[in-house]
Design goal:
The chain is built from two helices and 18 strands. It has 284 residues and is mainly beta. It folds into two domains: 12-133 and 261-274, Sandwich (Immunoglobulin-like), CATH 2.60.40; 138-229 and 279-283, Sandwich (Immunoglobulin-like). It has an eight-stranded mixed beta sheet with strand order 9-8-5-6-7-4-3-17, with no helix packed on it.
Length: 284
């Protein structure tokens, strides 16, 4: 199980606005961005068909400059609906899992289905829909030194992690890749995940996923590649994170920031995605 931790923040931004032509000067302008600390509900629901226990996380947002996570919601009513049957999620009571809700049976009935998510909290109901789609079966995973390492351009040894699979016949599919070492996720942040479309893929694909430094690995480490089917909307969700974090660069350059997209109703944020999943391991 892997859950995305989202923090939606607002606050006060200090901007240097004006530089004189004949003499250097600067003016600080404080923009009140209407701090909404604790006002936004965050719902993170990534449901897989792997037969394992599934989790949904419900929390509150924190303010822009707050380093800690938002309030964990422990008294919501959470369930999925499928073929007129309800699959209720139970809240954990142990401290480190507060805010998470789990179900042990829904993972086995997802294939070919569209699911509806319901979260009831403080008199409001938040909903979303997601449809299961197949994913290619990973044939193998390989680890190869990058061209930069082979040519000696970089001092550290860099490895590329490649996934190999036979593509599906349709050309309107989207995929997400996660990388784990000894069960610990390396792509834990939304902007670290690799998402792609199969629009231009050949019948058989060797796809470069991530680079790993040699000092990140020890002999015997188990590297696991995970491949999920996702919707076009979920693909855009992760790309928005990448554009507004890792690729944002200079805050005064490029496109203006925009809200991260969501498929959850009633003003909540986050995303609900039902996925097929394929995993493959390699030992370093």
């Amino acid at each position: 199980m892997q859950t995305i931790y989202l923090t939606i923040k607002t606050g006060i931004l200090v901007i240097l606005l004006y530089t004189g032509l004949l003499m250097g000067c600067q003016k600080s302008v404080i923009l009140d961005l209407a701090d909404k600390e604790g006002s936004l509900l965050i719902i993170e629901a990534n449901i897989l068909d792997d037969g394992l226990r599934q989790h949904i996380r419900v929390s509150r947002s924190s303010s822009y400059y707050e380093e800690s996570e938002g309030e964990r919601i422990t008294d919501a009513r959470v369930w999925l609906e499928l073929d007129e049957k309800k699959y209720f999620f139970k809240a954990y009571e142990i401290e480190r899992r507060l805010g998470f809700y789990y179900n042990d049976s829904v993972s086995n009935v997802l294939k070919g289905k569209e699911l509806s998510l319901f979260v009831e909290y403080e008199g409001f109901t938040y909903t979303a829909k997601s449809k299961w789609k197949p994913v290619p079966v990973l044939d193998s995973v390989s680890l190869m030194p990058t061209t930069l390492s082979v040519m000696g351009i970089v001092s550290d040894t860099l490895y590329e992690v490649w996934g190999h699979f036979r593509e599906l016949p349709t050309k309107d599919d989207y995929y997400l890749f996660n990388l784990y070492i000894n069960g610990n996720i390396k792509t834990w942040r939304p902007s670290l995940k690799v998402v792609t479309s199969n629009k231009n893929m050949e019948e058989y694909v060797s796809y470069s996923i991530k680079n790993l430094r040699k000092n990140e690995l020890e002999e015997g480490d188990v590297i696991q590649l995970e491949m999920r089917s996702i919707s076009k909307e979920n693909y855009e969700f992760y790309n928005a994170f990448l554009l507004q974090t890792d690729l944002s660069g200079n805050p005064f350059a490029g496109a203006p920031p925009a809200n991260i997209p969501t498929n959850i109703s009633n003003g909540a944020h986050g995303f609900f995605q039902v996925s097929s999943v394929s995993r493959k391991n390699i030992v370093y």
